[in-house]
Amino acid sequence: MHCSQAPKETSITSIIIRELAEATLKKTGSRMPLDERPLPQDDPKQRRPDISKAKELLRGTPKIELDKGLDYTITYFSDLLNSSSLTRA
Hints:
Blueprint: E1 2-5, H1 17-28, E2 35-38, H2 52-58, H3 66-88
Parallel strand pairs: 1-2
């Protein structure tokens, strides 16, 4: 799993890619090593994501905690991989 080396952020509403990768590896039981690389020179030092379009289309704001969202995502892709491997056999 690739993640860039970036300064640690400390915020309730933000998470760095490394923390997300580590949480995903832990939840899946994977022992895949993280591939750390330097950030590209043109990489912004701080991102300011704009979720206004998502808020408008979904008529609200996210209400699922990251931990639960990872559980849903891992289950979804696990089921998808299991069903697609059955159709290939």
